[in-house]
Batch of 2 targets.
Target 1
Amino acid sequence: MARAFFFGAFAAVAILVSAASPAAAEDTLKVATGQRGNWNGAVGELGQRAGIFKRHGLVLEILYTSGSGETQQAVIAGSVDVGTAVGTIGAISAFSKGAPMRVLGGETTGGADYWYVPAMSPIKTMKDTDGKTIAFSTNGASTHSVVLAFIKELGLKAKAVATGNPAATMTQVMTGQVDVGWGSPPFGVKELDEGRIRMVARATDLAMVRGQTIRVLATNADALGKRKDALVRFMDAYRESLDYMYSDDPKVIKDYAEFAGISPEVARRTRDIFPKELLQPDEIKGLDLMMSEAINLKFTTAPLSSEQLKELIQIPPRKRS
């Protein structure tokens, strides 16, 4: 009888351990991304809501920043494991200066960022901004490099000003503190529809943006060395989440609208602005052009060698289906 009790108790303990093992196996990753509510920055949020990251043994702690400059600093400091939507030129610059920056994948190729003015502004295009101020999010962000490229390409005597996130930028534009603001859908869609603001330029007006990977997924070299398995699983879950976001599942639009605080109609329009091919993580496109622009805009002084690029860019291969 005692023996039967022993084996019964052992079986009960085994069942409890087995039941607890999935939760115990989950790794927590801290993820920083700029601009809460942006479609391209919602992959972690929507994938986690759908249970995709959990299936890959991951729990994400998602932190939102005012722009990729802040995200990049969090990655470099090692306070987060992954930074999404880090400006490619900023990442090249940081790495060239010895920062422990590594690239896990592409984040945005092309882009939907735009620049706007109040409806009554005399500014019609970027060419009308001599002596004016043009907003970008944070130093080192992709919006920073885009504004500097506009100024250089058009020969403008304009001043680039860091204004933070789209909401803070809108306040500064509408109160006359800055002449030209920046935004990214879904932010500003309602104001554009209502005629309160008027678009004067898109990021894709520049050759350095069209077809180029302007933002990347980044990690810290130390995190990659110590948590490579978890980061590989993160990339697997990230790819699966992207597939889910462009599926016909109605939960996608419902969850995104709720997360971003917008109507389902605006949520659907926002997804349409970002075709799936813009968000593919498996390749960094236009690297030669981005390197050239990093030098032209004085983010770095010389191109990275092939050995340096191999060290910087370490994209885990996609699993074969």
Target 2
Amino acid sequence: MKVGVCFNLKRPMEESSSEDLYAEWDDEETIAAVRSALSRKHLVIPVEGNEEAFEKFRKLRPDIVFNMAEGLYGGSREAQIPAMLDMLRIPYTGSDPLTLALCLDKSLAKEVLSYHRIPTAPFVVVHDLKKKLKFPPLPLIVKPLSEGSSKGIGNSALVRTPKKLKQQVTKVLTEYRQPALVEKFIDGREFNISILGNNPIHILPISEIDFSKLDDDLYAITTYEAKWMPDHPLYKKTPPCCPADISPALKRRLEDIALSVYRLLHGRDYGRVDVRMDSTEEIYVLEYNPNPDISPEAGFIRSLKAGGYEYEDFVSIVLKEALKRKGNG
């Protein structure tokens, strides 16, 4: 087949840019890994997920697209490429525009989960600090509303005083030019549950972030530094453990809630559910990521390997799942 691979390639950082500007975009290694896996059986056509993508897809007419693109601008940017492909009736891997747009807006996704009685931390969305809002009790964690990859989340994102809360919200509003999500901090263990497939759905070995090695001045949260900066103390002192050391009963609970989230938010082909568990063992969903990082060293791929899958297996399975939809939309 003629398979398109759509991506957003990380750019060299400009001096005026924040260090996490391109955190969600793919590096050359990730793009090469997907292309290599696909090229064993197919003709691969790379397409950058930018303003020119629609015209390229229209001319090239690939049989299917392996979509990795994060999109360019706006709060629904992850939906841009799938929407183009739907318009052109070209099948593609991964979730549809509705799921991608919904899940990138953390507050909307949390509202859907709450409506269906899936526990998620109490929250407030701040558009303007001049407006009076009733916040959950401190401590709180402050995040950009529509970002992934822990963009905008550093050690200072966890606030314990009204003064720090105001400072952190101001930072999100000004630096990220979007509303701030302020939610109750769930103090406890953090798990990532990766999912593969549609029918059947495979729940991969669960991963846990180990916060036990952190110094007292570093908070137990998964920050941008902990994910992306290998030389940073937060990266070195928050190692993932996969498979997680958990009881069979907890494993079933985590799998059940992840499966509920995946189905409820119309997850497709693959995705990852992030949760935290407090001291009473109540589980709270942080978010569902329908377009998780699939770089060879990413947490999703770590869970795949723990489940006995090679990278090429993953790419092949996702492509086959998407091909089942060909001609149905």
